DNA sequence: GTAGCGCGTCGGCAAGCGTA
DNA sequence: TACGCTTGCCGACGCGCTAC
């Protein structure tokens, strides 16, 4: 069975679509910023087209990035997970974005809920464990919903809590917060869920932790990530 | 200090156009 | 006819300015 290209029917070249989606998701740019930057390169499209592409291809690209990483045997570590949640306002209503991060700072899972209770924590935990399996230990803040949910799934003994232990998860919110600020706000819960999922995949893909490597290594990894991005959905 | 206002920018929607 | 894409507009919100 031959796989049909998701770019079929599109008038614009796939590399331009990939570029626009990468600009919008990876950097704190608005739809209109992307429109203007592409205009500078002689590409005439409207901000609505950028939104249309990102809606159409965001999840497809994110899924392919995840698949590629698994295929390259970059197994997601189950040694230690860090869980944390942040407030996100949608039309004046508080929602919660839950995140699971592994010990290397790689975002494993993002999930949006309206509440912060045991039920929400349980749903998030089950979703993460379904995809990545059971971790050896889970670091959380002192929100009691985590403990209650972990007792339900039978790994209550693996929980570690501490004021500073969870900085890794807290730090993972920073790029998201920067992005949220640029967008000014999210309008819908499903939009936030979608953006969080795609943003974490793209952030994982391009995040080279430049401080930990030599300049040469960093440049090599960055070029490899970009080259891989340019191949997305090209098969 | 703060309340009110106007402006600019944002994402999002609906309708319609152009093209294969 | 189906689909990609544009246009025009909307409501929400942040920010700066002004008056009190």
Automatic annotation (TrEMBL):
<comment type="function">
    <text>Involved in the transposition of the insertion sequence.</text>
</comment>
<dbReference type="InterPro" id="IPR012337">
    <property type="entry name" value="RNaseH-like_sf"/>
</dbReference>
<dbReference type="GO" id="GO:0003677">
    <property type="term" value="F:DNA binding"/>
</dbReference>
<feature type="domain" description="DDE">
    <location>
        <begin position="78"/>
        <end position="208"/>
    </location>
</feature>
<dbReference type="InterPro" id="IPR032874">
    <property type="entry name" value="DDE_dom"/>
</dbReference>
<protein>
    <submittedName>
        <fullName>Integrase core domain protein</fullName>
    </submittedName>
</protein>
<dbReference type="InterPro" id="IPR036397">
    <property type="entry name" value="RNaseH_sf"/>
</dbReference>
<dbReference type="GO" id="GO:0006310">
    <property type="term" value="P:DNA recombination"/>
</dbReference>
<keyword id="KW-0815">Transposition</keyword>
<keyword id="KW-0233">DNA recombination</keyword>
<dbReference type="InterPro" id="IPR047930">
    <property type="entry name" value="Transpos_IS6"/>
</dbReference>
<dbReference type="InterPro" id="IPR052183">
    <property type="entry name" value="IS_Transposase"/>
</dbReference>
<dbReference type="GO" id="GO:0032196">
    <property type="term" value="P:transposition"/>
</dbReference>
<dbReference type="Pfam" id="PF13610">
    <property type="entry name" value="DDE_Tnp_IS240"/>
</dbReference>
<keyword id="KW-0238">DNA-binding</keyword>
């Amino acid at each position: 069975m031959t796989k049909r290209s998701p770019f079929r029917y599109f008038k614009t070249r796939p590399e331009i679509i990939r570029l626009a989606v990468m600009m919008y998701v990876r950097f704190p740019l608005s739809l209109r910023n992307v429109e203007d930057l592409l205009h500078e390169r002689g590409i005439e499209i409207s901000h609505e087209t950028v939104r249309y592409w990102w809606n159409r291809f965001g999840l497809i690209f994110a899924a392919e990035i995840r698949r590629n990483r698994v295929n390259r045997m970059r197994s997601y570590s189950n040694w230690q997970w860090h869980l944390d949640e942040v407030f996100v306002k949608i039309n004046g209503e508080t929602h919660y974005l839950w995140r699971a991060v592994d010990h290397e700072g790689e975002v494993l899972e993002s999930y949006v809920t309206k509440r912060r209770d045991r039920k929400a924590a349980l749903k998030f935990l089950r979703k993460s464990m379904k995809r990545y399996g059971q971790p050896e230990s889970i670091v959380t803040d002192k929100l009691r919903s985590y403990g209650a949910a972990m007792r339900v799934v039978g790994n209550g003994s693996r929980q570690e809590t501490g004021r500073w232990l969870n900085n890794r998860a807290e730090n993972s919110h920073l790029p998201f917060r920067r992005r949220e600020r640029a967008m000014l706000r999210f309008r819908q819960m499903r939009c936030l869920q979608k953006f969080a999922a795609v943003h974490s995949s793209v952030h994982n893909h391009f995040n080279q932790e430049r401080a930990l490597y030599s300049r040469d290594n960093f440049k090599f990894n960055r070029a490899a990530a970009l080259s891989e991005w340019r191949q997305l959905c090209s098969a």
